[in-house]
Specification:
By secondary structure, this protein is mostly helical. It is built from 5 helices and 2 strands. Helix 4 crosses helix 5.
């Protein structure tokens, strides 16, 4: 994924100074991609990687409702996603 993004940025003449932040969903492969781009382009990945706010709020809601109802499936979404957020 990083190679494709990098080649696209190169094609359009995008430099690290032109990049603000990468706003991506919370998948781990997006962390990997941002780190790979940072390595190639010379910027700090941790300062340029933003997470998807609505997705994070959804996962927090799942956890709260699951705890209140004592049923991890009460929210109707995949309970495994809440585990991912807890790890992060």
């Amino acid at each position: 994924m990083a190679e494709i993004v990098y080649s696209t940025l190169q094609k359009f003449g995008v430099t690290p100074r032109m990049i603000g932040c990468f706003v991506l969903d919370n998948a781990y492969n997006n962390d990997t991609t941002t780190r790979a781009l940072a390595s190639k382009m010379g910027f700090n990945a941790a300062l340029r990687r933003l997470r998807c706010g609505p997705h994070t709020l959804n996962l927090i809601s799942q956890r709260i409702i699951g705890d209140i109802c004592k049923d991890p499936n009460a929210y109707g979404n995949d309970a495994g996603e809440a585990v991912e957020v807890a790890k992060e």
